[in-house]
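Hello forum,

I keep getting stuck at the same step: I have a sequence, I want structure tokens, and every attempt I make locally crashes halfway through. Rather than fight my setup again tonight, could one of you with a working pipeline run this one for me? It's a single chain of 40 residues.
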Amino acid sequence: MYRLMIVEDEQAIAQGIANSLPWEEWCFPISVCRRWTGLS
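Reply #2:
Ran it on my machine without issues. Output:
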């Protein structure tokens, strides 16, 4: 089984990616991780 991890520093973009396609219907459980590097 595969897992999909979305790592993005913008929460709205990460949620948009997670909701853009039927990942779980395709058997890809999703984990959304908000990553902040401290860089601008």
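The mean pLDDT is 81. If your local run keeps crashing, start a new thread with the error log.
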